[in-house]
## 1
Amino acid sequence: MKWKSLIKVALKSIMKNRMRSFLTMLGIIIGVASVIALISVGRGTQADISGKIQSMGTNLLMVMPGASGFGGVSRGAGSWHTLTIADAEKIENEATLVTQVSPVVRESAQVIAGRNNWFTSVQGVTENYTVIRSWPVDRGAFFTDRDVKAMAKVAVLGATVADTLFPGQDPIGARIRVGNVPFTVVGVLGTKGQNMMGSDQDDIILAPATTVLFRLGDGKWINSITVSAVSEQETEAARSEIETIMRRAHQLAGSEENDFSIRTQTELNEMATSVTKMMTLLLSAVAGVSLLVGGIGIMNIMLVSVTERTREIGIRLAIGAREADVLVQFLIEAAIISLMGGLLGILLGLVTAGIIGKAISASVVIDPVTIAVSFLFSGIIGIFFGFYPAKKAAALNPIEALHYE
Amino acid sequence: MALIELNNLTKTYRMGDIDVHALRGVNMKVEEREFLAITGASGSGKSTMLNILGCLDLPSGGEYVLGGVQVSGLGKRELADIRNEKIGFVFQGFNLLPRTSALENVELPLLYDRAGRIKDPARKAIEVLTRVGLADRLHHEPNKLSGGEQQRVAIARALINEPSILLADEPTGNLDTVTSMEVIEIFRDLNRQGMTIILVTHEPDIAHQARRAIELRDGRIVKDVVL
């Protein structure tokens, strides 16, 4: 038997029944298209989130109050008041693997500037914060360590706050009131955009940590300490170093649990990707089911086709086709149908991924391995579900098949 | 040695609970270059006999020797190969593949020609189609051809593998008298050129065109005459 002629025969029979062949392919097309679209968009979203986490700053570590979840009952991170500015200073002075440290004091307040007012988050930080978060000022200047020491009432506005309070004006040097405390605007931050949770990072006011802590906060407890390690590779080493320093600072005995927790960017990354991975997995399962349904569709139509072509099979057997020849002919036909379906599905999937990506403004990552695997997989589905009908065709009795009406 | 030898050939079908004895001990020899007509009423066993001669079916008992090969004991694969290499079939209903040109229909058996005896299928197909007078119908599909032309395509298809025997099952059953005679004339021509032909028919006129006629009744040969 000649493969070339076999493929020609199969193609001819597919082309003779264009509409039916297309309908047979449809299941595979939809299955493959959804796999490709979902995985492309899933990967893209994952990349977006990683990118956003990266944009939070390089080699970032966050020290949060509260235990991170060892032992019996654990309260959520951040639920305790355990961190102070002194802790931040200790880390800055003693740790060797960190470059920048900034305490973060988070408050919310109504901010008034002239006739405009706005409710926003006020964060007390130090000058290092702009470096850690790679967040430069756009206009004016950031406040200095001297401002922090002096508890100066100066503020740097996020882009959104600046636009809201000072539409079309230069806010540098302007006076604003945060709660009851008057501040002078010294700078405006560059635009940072949305974070991975979708909230506007530019809707913020930064002020010296001491000022926020003593003028707006409770004067003792800070919300977190943001640290950047010397390099990404040293993040884990920096973590244990900070842990040691913190345990000593908090005078914890050997058996006591940490009253703080340290998060690294890698962890945040993992957390976020595990969510998208879960989604991708779930959606892929749905796509897998539609591929299965597509396969059953192929089997269905092939069975009809075998019945319809009983006479043809009889003729082939009579002129000397072996059972294996008929089997192979129908298998090739099934494989070609499903591979064509796979190909169309890949095209449709890529187009769909592009459209979805545009619609939800997510990136689309096209993975050649995924495409190759879907293509191969559709061929396997064709052969698997084509086998039973092909076997049935090959087992026909030539005499009965020849006289089939 | 005879081309075909049947020794006490029997065929019994089981239909439900009843055994149907289609052939009850047939003895027959066919030499090369013979033109044999098998006649008989319907149910006489002539179709069964043709199916066995054509290796589409196996006998229940007795011997069938084709060109020195004992067919009775062969498996499905060997039967398929014999059908491909040694036998050419012509059917009553033409049995051409629809929406497939005359040329492609005729080439079809070569798809299964494992030995690769014919080197240039297209050329060979044109040659046999020319032999049956259809040189100008190569690219016509069956539904564009008359009944007689379709049957001639089927004959060409039967000839392409250079078989040792041509088996025809009621080849004129679907044709009018004039066309029937044209088709029979092709058979006579082929026979004159040396082809062994066995033809099953219930029409005495057709049977008379052969050189030898056998009549079957109830699964036995009741008459064997040279015409």
## 2
Amino acid sequence: MTLAIDRVAGRQRTARPPTRRSSWIHRRDRRGVWFIVPFLAAFGLFMVVPLGYAVYSSLYTSKLIGGTTFSGLANYQQVLTSGDFWSGVVRTVIYAAIQIPVMLVIAFFFAAIFDLGLVKFGKFFRTVFFMPFAVPGVVAAVMWSFMLEPHFGPVTQVLAAFGVQNVDFFGPNLVLPSIILIVIWEWTGYNMVILFTALKQVPRDMVEAALLDGATVWTIIRRVKLPMVRPAIVMIVLVNTIGALQLFTEPFILQQFENQAISTNYTPTLYVFNTATGGGQYNLAAAMAVILGLFIGVVSVGSLLFRRRAGDLG
Amino acid sequence: MRIPKIPLVAGAIALSLAAAGCGGASTSNTTPTSGVSVQGTSTCKSGATPITFWAWVPGMARAVEAFNARHPDICVSLQNVGSGNQEYVKVTSTLKAGSGAPDVAELEFDELPSFEITHSVVDLSKYGADSVKNKFVSWAWQEVSQGSAVYAMPDDAGPMGLYYNQNLLAQYHITPPATWADFASDAAALHRANPNAYLTNFAAGDLQWILSLMAQDNAFPFRYTGGSNVTIDFTGPAQTAFANYWQNLLAAHEVNATTDMDATSFADLDKGVDATWLSSAWGPSYFATAARASVGQWRTAALPQWSAGVNVAANWGGSTYPVFTQSQHPQQAATFAEWLTSSDAAWTILKTSPSSLFPTYQPLLSDPSFTGITVPLSGTATPNSTFAAAATKVGTVQWPPFMTEALTESDTVFAGVLNGTGTLPAAFRAFQDKLVSYAKAQGFTVSTS
């Protein structure tokens, strides 16, 4: 045994002075620890502990009459068979299926225009387009709710002036489009900047080569630029899908303006919130949150794997 | 107190602005603690017993200052952590957490049983609350007590009345209807005379308002006296008759299906779209800020009656002040709650603007200096005299211990009545199912008749 260790040590010694190496590792470890402590502390305190607590409390049931008892997976069973929960999930999926493509097309359109330098004062307009992102989501939702308010909102009044009377943006048919409008306004500029940056990465000589081959601007955008920024688009779709499934702020604020416009289960996150604060069913809400988290996890990992196989990422 | 809708949003904006450093006017006696300013402590002596008090009534700090000046051994500090549900969520969370709850907080009448069932409120009869029992109208005292136990001090209330624009009613040759049958025929007549106007609005989204009107019709859907038995009955004969009465008016478009207590409904009242408002004693003070054209034209009458010759009133809203079991100083907290609700000194302050509370405190109800108050909205009339007469004719109701859930769900369940895709009887049935299954899941034995 001793021999063997000596031999190993000896071999190492020939490769690199062992004392130096081990102390270097030691020092590096310690320094590394200090670098990650702030992150780990925050991550543990605000992610791991609450997540663990949510899973823990989802296994119990607290009743006004009868107190708290261990109920195993009963809460999960109730959520999985709850029409109210899944109708909210379906609504957010419909929302995502409209909001993300529309926003992407607008964002790419303007990113391409700025990239080609087709407009004067490009920098100025890029900043203007980006500005909605700097407005906090709550403030944006409040602002838009005032503008779309069915009775005194300026948008409604302008429409009325043009002969379109009684448009109820908070009515059952238009409330989802109104939310989509608000979110597109908030996020298009941000995604445009990402796409613009990606477009700038496309090598100039490729564009020049295409030009020499007689390609039109439209062909260059479609056949050269678009394929080159596909990874960025995939990333945007993924991030926005996750965001869509967590839709909360806009419908929540809209509800303050017109209670009836938004049902308690309008989106899954709203349902989690209302189940906890309205009915005091914290355990059931925890089970919902866990299921929603898993659902989002499956959607994201699944689409990542799919895209990786398709060669868009990694 | 009543919680207006849009101002909540305005408050949220103000808060976020203040947090961003855009606001920030602070007076010498406000000390910021975790974003919420403490008020009322300027006269406190050092060493006085500290009492934390949460409330959202405007101008409440004046009463707290007056209490602290009179009680050098106690220092009550007032915090406004939000109105209604915003506050209840915080109270519930701090009670659950085991620390951080206030000693005293404002709770509406309908919320109190939710805190009784969790044993979160102190029985104030231990601290002499019984001695002031007779100072209050009897229904208010019954709603805060169970047997000999007193779980909160009743404070303000909202006896209901028919608030009407006398010029408009005269224009349509309508006198304030004495019965609901008259009310229905007047609604039809007015809408025939002017298809763009209504006798009144029906606020299907406001559960508390509907429940108050149901109570007047002897159709209140809940019975609960503590413990594990609760009655939920939205589908009995009385409840169905109530629902059908309003559904007939809604179906004929003879009442305005809209929201209440918001800018839209106030504009409808001001512009003559709605000629009357089934409102409460505190209603006018909210409407006053939005009224322009109709200022001076508003008069008050008793609610229409379901049978001629009787006089049944109803109450809509109002607050109570319990002491929480987490309090380290329940004796001092009770002293404050009792002083705040049952002393002439407190009511001298709270009856005036901006608090403008309507009392359950009898000495004030019969005081000409209170009943004789005039407000610009009503010209020379004295609305308080109508509401004070109603205050003593209110029947007692029993709130279930899950009103937050009921209020949360009601918006969704009654939405169809507002936008015309559902009927009131159908909404009552759906609401019944929702609440019964909730109550059962919470372990209650539920009776439905």
